[in-house]
Amino acid sequence: MKPHPLYINGQFVASESTEMINIVNPGTEEVISKVVDAKDEDVDQAIEAAFQAQKNWEKTPQVDRGLIVRRIAEAIHADKERLAQILSEEQGKPIHEASGELDGAIDFFFYMSEWNRKIGGEIVPSDDSNEQILIQRKPIGVVAGIIPWNYPVFIFARKVATALITGCSIVVKSSEETPNTAAALSEIIHQSDLPKGVYNLVTGKGDTVGNRLSTDARVAIISMTGSVPAGTKVMEAAAQNITKVNLELGGKAPMIVSKHADVDLAVEHIKASRIENAGQACISAERVYVQEDVAELFIDKMIRAMKDIKVGYSLEDDNVDMGPVSSAHHLDKIEKIVENAKKQGAEVKLGGERLDLGKGYYYKPTVLTNISDELEIMKKEIFGPVLPITTYKTFNEAIERANDSIYGLSSALYTNDYNEVMQASRDLQFGETYVNRMTDEATQGYHAGMRKSGIGGTDGKNGINDFLSTHVMYLKYNE
Ligand code: NAD
């Protein structure tokens, strides 16, 4: 089996690296492809290609850039079914979710294409009547787009579409666990009218290829999505050249269920949030705080809802709700965090162990109660289909406990009380809060975390601004 090629300066090229990484289908444990851990020279060539291509790309009128981004969206759309299959195979999410992720990515490319002719600067008043002050917004330059395994298509779209519409060139590093979709998307981009060198793809590991990208002075922004430890290393590496970082990192989303909530709605959404992608989303329901008056009702309904979930390999069984987790290593991590919680007094209401289907990395949908805030399971990202539930008395207490986290990405509130909603909008300290709504960010929003959940984002107008730099012109004139 040959490894996927790299894509550098408009060509698919084989690396001379002999360091191979096997890509395993988490539903079947079969090796389905290989990539190389690219060499430093490969990464350097990709950056140089992007750096050179940037010079003309940023001068290309927005209307032309928008058209290319739109054509890429159309081409991905035309190939959606095949791409969803590749995604489901390499990552494990059921095919209906893979198809949904493709829809999100296509929408993202279309959305960004529509920003053409709209990205502009400002004219601000001068203190001098013989002067104009122009704040120009220009492409920041070469983007290093570092992608995780959990949403390898959608996050690819986030990095690539935002880079292209803003006039930036990009070197993508796919995840070493899910590189097949990035390889397939590169073939689509290769068929487009995008000038060579504007988009490049390298494969490999974080501490080799990712680190090389993060330490190169030609890179203007490192847009990395992944874990907090990897984000910390990226930031350390970026510090060498004072390179801008754009980090979308982990989360520990609290779900507050008030006594004024529609409990059925809360159960439906929290269940969906926890089992989507087998719980491996940065905005998944990671901890539940339910007001004690409705706790019994909520827990009963949640157990029943989670019991109904059919787990399996969706490419062999159409009726599957939830697939495997991403890898053997990740399954071990989930098992360990639940075992520790059990030892510390957590009560297993449902699941609480692996699911043996003969092959693949499956974990049972799990509900845990009798949880103290001090447990590791309430502090660390679980990233699996495991729902720890705790209770609260007052709304102030719920907000305070929800905020008490190193993470600050996502949060949700279920209530029909106006005052609670308003208080949450003032006091919850998270990049986003979903009120009576599924945890599912909008393309035109801004998915950006607080605290260790990261810095900046790629969505909407604010994401575009993150990929632009300012150049202020002071234009003095004589009468
Ligand atoms: P990870 O941190 O292990 O890897 C993410 C990417 O970073 C990979 O491509 C990896 O190779 C690279 N990387 C690792 N070390 C690096 C280094 N030293 N220098 C440069 N690059 C490096 O994360 P993962 O396990 O692939 O993804 C799961 C994590 O991503 C979770 O914590 C999840 O919450 C987070 N995530 C966040 C968002 C968001 O938008 N905030 C979205 C999806 C996933």
Number of helices: 14
Show unreliable segments: none
Q: Tell me the number of strands.
A: 24
Write the CATH architecture name of the largest domain: 3-Layer(aba) Sandwich
Provide the β-strand percentage band.
15-25%
Number of domains: 2
CATH superfamily of the largest domain: Aldehyde Dehydrogenase, Chain A, domain 1
How does this structure look, described?
With 479 residues, the protein is of the alpha/beta class. It has 2 domains: 6-249 and 453-474, 3-Layer(aba) Sandwich (Aldehyde Dehydrogenase, Chain A, domain 1), CATH 3.40.605.10; 253-442, Aldehyde Dehydrogenase, Chain A, domain 2 (3-Layer(aba) Sandwich), CATH 3.40.309.10. It contains 14 helices and 24 strands. The chain has helices at residues 40-57, 62-78, 80-91, 95-113, 154-165, 180-190, 206-214, 228-239, 263-275, 292-307, 328-343, 395-403, 418-427, 460-466; strands at residues 6-8, 11-13, 20-24, 31-36, 122-124, 131-139, 142-146, 169-173, 199-202, 219-225, 244-248, 254-257, 287-291, 347-350, 354-355, 362-363, 366-369, 386-392, 407-408, 410-414, 432-435, 450-451, 454-455, 468-476. Strands 14-17-18-13-12-20-21 form a 7-stranded mixed β-sheet, sandwiched between helices. The chain has a 6-stranded mixed β-sheet with strand order 9-8-7-10-11-23, with helices on both faces. Strand 5 (122-124) and strand 6 (131-139) form a beta hairpin. Helix 1 packs parallel to helix 7 and helix 2 runs antiparallel to helix 4 (95-113). The mean pLDDT is 97. Bound molecules: nicotinamide-adenine-dinucleotide. Residues 146-151, 173, 175-176, 205-207, 210-211, 214, 224-227, 230, 233-234, 248-251, 282, 381, 409, 447, 449, 454 line the site of nicotinamide-adenine-dinucleotide (NAD).
